[in-house]
Structures are given as C-alpha cells and as structure tokens.
Amino acid sequence: MRMKSRLVQIGNSRGVRLSKAMLEHAALADDVEIVAEPGTITIRSATPPRAGWAEAAARGPQEAVLDGVSAVDFDDTEWMW
C-alpha cells in the first residue's frame, strides 16, 4: 500500500499524517520504532519479536505431552534392535 503525503509543521518539528487505512494495513500499535537513514525514514512496530513467549512457556504446555506414547506403530511392530 502506498500513500503520498506532505510534511506539516507541528510546533518546532515537522510531521506526517498517516491514514487510518494505512495504519490498519501495517497493523501498528501505539508504540513504534523510527529509524532514520539518508533519504529514508522507516516506522515499524516497537514490539520485539517473540514478545510474550517467555510467559507462555512458563505457563507450561497447552496440550498433552506424549512421553512414552508412539505416534506410529512402526516402533512397536517393525523396528528391531
């Protein structure tokens, strides 16, 4: 999705307005990270990758653990030591 816009004066700064459709398409939350490089400004979500994974892991498995259960009967019927 592309959008053409103008920089507008906001006090001593300048800013850009982003349409609701653009923000929804980008799925950005309230916190963003802004990176400036020559000729480019990038805005991306400030939420780090895998956010919340540690908490989910601490809650333990969400489905039954299959210790000692064979998913296929090859192990029981065809495999020989």
For the largest beta-sheet, the strand count, sense and barrel status come to: 2 strands, antiparallel
Radius of gyration: 25 Å
Helical amount among residues, as a percent range? 10-25%
Under CATH, the topology is which?
A: Pemi-like Protein 1, Chain: D
State the total count of DSSP E strands.
4
Ends distance: 59 Å
Number of helices: 3
Structural class: alpha+beta
Instruction: List SSEs in N-to-C order.
Output: EEHEEHH
User: What's the CATH class, please?
Assistant: Mainly Beta
Quaternary state reads single chain
Beta-strand content bin = 15-25%
Quick take:
The chain is an alpha+beta fold and 81 residues long. 21% of the residues lie in helices and 22% in strands. It has one domain: Pemi-like Protein 1, Chain: D (Ribbon).
What does this molecule look like?
The chain starts with 7 loop residues before the first strand and ends with a helix. The chain has helices at 20-26, 53-58, 74-77, and strands spanning 8-10, 13-15, 32-37, 40-45. The protein is elongated, with a radius of gyration of 25 Å. Helices cover 21% and strands 22% of the residues. With 81 residues, the chain is α+β, with helices and mostly antiparallel strands. The strands form 2 sheets. It has a two-stranded antiparallel ribbon with strand order 1-2. The protein has one domain: Pemi-like Protein 1, Chain: D. The protein contains 3 helices and 4 strands.
